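[[Per-residue structure]]
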Amino acid sequence: MSGNQTKEDHAMGLFKPDLYRNFAIGFALGAGLVVWQIAPSMNAELIPQAQAAPVSAPADARAK
C-alpha cells in the first residue's frame, strides 16, 4: 500500500454496486412486462360489467 491508501480502499466487496443496479433494472423491466401482458384482462376484473338483478313479483300479487 502506498501513499494515503488504506487496506479498506482496495478491499473487494462480494458484489459491486453495478450488480444491484442491474438487478433493480431487471426487476423493474420484468414487472413492467408482466403488467403489460395482463393489462387487457385487468380491465374486466377490476371493473365488472353491470348486471341487473332479476325481479320477481311478490307471492300475493301473483295470486290475483
The helical segments are 7-10, 17-46, 59-63. The radius of gyration is 32 Å. The chain has three helices and no strands.
